Amino acid sequence: MSKESFLSSLEKIVGKDNILSAEIDRVAYSFSAYNIWSKPDFVIRPAYPEEVADILVECSKNGIPIVPRGNGTSLVGGPISSSGAIMSMRRMNSVLEVNPDDMTATVEAGVCLRELLKELPEDLFFPVDPDGLCLSTFGGMVAENSASPLSLFYGTVGESIMGLEVVTADGSIWELGATIPCEGKMEKLFIGTEGTLGVITKVKVRLRRRPLRLFGLTVDFSHVGDALDLYSRLSYRGELMLGYTIYYRDIFEVHLPDERLGARAYTIIPHEPHSLVEFIKELSEELEILQVDVLELDPRILPYWKGNTYLMENLKTTGKTVNFVSFTTNSDLLHEAVSRIDHVGARMKLNTVTIINPGLNWILTGFSYDSLDNKSRERAHKAVEMLAQSLEELGASFGYGTGVGFNMAGLKFKELDNEALYKKIKKVLDPSGIMNPGKVVLGD
Amino acid sequence: MFWVIEMFSKELASLLSKCISCGACNDSCPLVRFIDGNETLGPRARISVFRAIDMGIMRISVDAIEYLYECGLCSLCDRSCPLDIEVSKLMLGIRAELIKLGYVPPYEIAKMRNSLLDIMQPWSREHRKGKWLPPNYSPDKEANILFFSGCWANRAPEMASSAFFIAETILGEKVYSLGENEPCCGQFLRIAGYEETYKDYLVKLREHIRDREIARVLVICELCKATMRDLGLEVSTLLEELCEKKLIKRLRKRRHKHKSRKVAFLPTCSLKREHASLLEEFMKEKFAEMPSWFCMSCGFSLSEISSLKTLERMVDGIFTALKDEKVDLLVVADPFSYWLLSESRKRNKRKVKTEIVDLYSFLVERIKA
To answer: What structural domains and CATH numbers belong to chain B?
Structure first.
């Protein structure tokens, strides 16, 4: 089938206005956050699951790869396609139901977090906010099984999913999950598989009660190792923390508040902080703590996590963009992983930004580069590859909280037997291999 | 791999490269929000497209230039950027640099420039000014406050006459109008990117309006306000004047009979929050809470000239939002927005149930009631 007749068959499904194939549209949909880009052949914008089903059938028949896209906020290029189609889910943007008694909400996949929050009663919220701006869509967050600092307490997005509606490549529409507000079973297959097994069209989520009081604690250290150590001690003490994140000194490098600063830890606690502050101060000499600050936060104002501003300040000052890698490793190897990031950054002459979530064994790191400078862009890509090789020795697993995306799709790793089983399932659900090819399985 | 062709100046290119494509700007863009969340219409895509052009990924084309002029420069996106990029200034910068490089804006806009230089009006002579004034109007010789109605209000005469009435009656000032001799303020030139032409035009305009000592200028359009400021004149919008002098409270005594109708207010973008709330307080009607992107800035007046189709889709989106909120009456502060919305409503009377009234006629209705 020629491209023209294929597009006209899609036009019959969604209407002419919702097939975008002009050069400008293709470039417009080629970017996601942090300037990861690759130009699709065309963009299609369905409004109903039935339209999604018909599109997938057409694409399967013609072997056209298709990549679902929400708001394009992925740190690692989740919604990027180097060929075929982008399926924009933003027309599916209705909050279908909010049930305050069961503390659940059902939304279409293209609804972003900000849009849901507006519809919720004041005492309820949804805690995972991967981009720190409440802009990620639910379809995207589920597909990537997104995480954010508050995942320490509330888990990843996947842990708040009660049900999904998904469309598979053969055009079948599946309602998965449980009819009562508890977790189902088969929906899990589509959580974190980055839209490679089916397109998520509807999401039922568990909401959380807003805390009555919130305090943010900032603790500055001379050494990142001490910031990691403090987390272990607080955890051992049974301290209730909604999140605990360490901002490594590289993130402040352009604007270092204190020359001695090695790392800044930021934690949010839902109770009076007095005894915790005393406890931390007692450790001051042992852990080389430079400063402790406490700020009461307004629980009514979202997002709670203000640490994102450090990264934004860095980008504002440098005018650079970042090539991110997200990985998890054993907790005792986090310090070593940071040293390796430093090493690669120094070798490639690139600034790095590193955010560590010790409770989740999760590090999000990135290499800064000038988006208009070819050489620095290439160095940043090379740095990602070098770091990945180096981290493989530490037994790192890639894509936690962000998905593998476009950024890490080229890396080659062994993922136990997950890969082999995943490939078998993929063959059944997507025999033509059109669904978001290249994502999830590293090196696929 | 691509070739960097460095089309734009270093300053502009570095501003373009600063954007991390997070998409926060799209969330506040009225075009994206009113037209189905289409990414192409948003600031992120516009930055991406012109960065792609600067990087040599994409070629500059007539389509790309038309696309650049589709943005209404409402600047709502500036407020939501986490990196404080002033996207509207960036768009304006691209327009200006392309003109310097010899590219011509969309035909209708280029034609408008010639008309401004020729007759000091953006449109043909047929669009006569001052139609809203009484037939035998002659300005009070002692009046020294210039009422500058602006081009769009002349296309919506009821708005201009109501505003003039308020200026005379409520403000009690000696105001005068230039009537049919009122020239265009020339802001079209600036927002189209004709930086140098705009500067020259200001000189011409200064000569044209200074037939007497102007103590102050009263305007109803934000574009006119910007020009008067550039001319170094003291200027305020009529609404600002009413709110700041607390004169709007004088109107409160005369309440309106329709208490049960639901009203929405479409403000101008520089309208201060306190002005809006004072107005709402005064109106004493049931107000619909409209989203932050419920905006149609005067910058869209260029889009009306060059990208009418997109603008019509946006207007449809506005009408749908009003319908969803069950709004009976929409009060519009900006003359261009009022003109466009009321004209569209006239064409779609069956579909659009919400009545549309300009802010000043709405206030006059109160005074006369």
So the answer is: 10-100 (1.10.1060.10), 108-243 (3.40.50), 255-368 (3.40.50)
